[in-house]
Amino acid sequence: MSLLPDRIQPLNDKGVQEGARYVLYWMEQSQRAQHNPALERALHHASETGLPLLVVCGVTDDFPEATLRHHTFLLEGLQETKQRLADRGLKLVVREGAPDDVALAHAGAAAVLVTDRGYLRHQKQWRARVAEEAPCRVEQVEGDVVVPVETVTDKAEYAARTIRPKIHEHLERCLQLPEPVPVETPSLDLDIDSGRSLDDIAAVTDQMDLDRGVGAVSDLYPGGVSEAEAILDDFLAEHLDGYDENRNQIHSHAVSHMSKYLHYGQISPVWLAQQVRRAEGPESDIESYIEELVVRRELTMNHVHFRPDTYDSYTCLPEWARESLAEHADDEREYVYSLDELEGGTTHDPYWNAAMKEMRETGYMHNYMRMYWGKKILEWSPDPKTAYDRTLRLNNRYFLDGRDPNSFANVAWVFGLHDRGWKERPVYGKVRYMSQGGLDRKADPDAYVEKVDRLATVAQSA
Question: What is the pLDDT of residue 400?
């Protein structure tokens, strides 16, 4: 199927550059060789111009919370992507440097430059600079949401209930994958420096300025589309049936682990939705998964896109939440912990400590525990603004899927974003409260602690 027009956006009004050597795909967000609308759009331009397609990707350590964990996972994915592109006759050049610098370093000889889409502030700034300075036409092609954000709405949505019908209005026509475009002129032999070898990922990360206190977790969650496909196959076979009922059971394995692969663009959300819809399982479980993948995830994209200046700050919270939290900022707190105590998981609460251990040692935390974890940071910090900053810092440092729209929106949810006012309480004000007693009633936290200990042992032995 041809690309959905909604996905294609010109970023400048320049034309096709004459005398060019290649069409350029600047791969930044959609780091994959399959089900990638930006890649197929670039191949379309290559076919029209009769030129080869060159793919480039910049990898930088000049980024907040750049850790060995994040970069190892990213490079594991790019290692496989490079091979899959080569299987199609396409050359991928990976260079260390700011992504926009790497793109512009190769734009001078490009007839057309195509890139994928990212919603965060720095990603928009990178694309704006490239569009302004490149000597050729620059196009952006959406490949990391099911329904493009502007197709859904033209404003920041209040909650899932307000965005859900707008997404469903377009869902079926957007659940289409692009047809692979034949590679007419291979680029593997292009006389272009191949950049950084990915044969030895440790050799690459050894030369980067990374936070090595957050180690790789490749024995638990390796990067790459093949790993994602294998994990998904297991989930669909063993855990989709009963997903709606079990997904909040923190001791269970009824989770797909796809968020980290979506975060690095190693899989397509459209492909993922199609795989789930085709699986054998109760309709209620399938629809519950689609709700999380499409409605809930794309609400977070809406959040960062329409709040570009505030999505990662306390000021993004709704006025009612900020006012209510301010009224209770000086309330007496039964427990107050330092950031070091929180990070080390040395609180009085064994379940919270286990959640922090899961996050710290594995790069993952069950989503229901993420909510409980965040609520307790609000409760145990000296004031709500400090709690917000701590929650975001820990989230972005340790989670494999940290530092993305889901992270920013989900942290803000702890403090009232995309929610409503509840019964007023000390410290929380009208912001939703979660208790250890509620955890005991709804889940099996002791079994969760045992599960975390087993996973941490695997991670620590790597």
Answer: 96
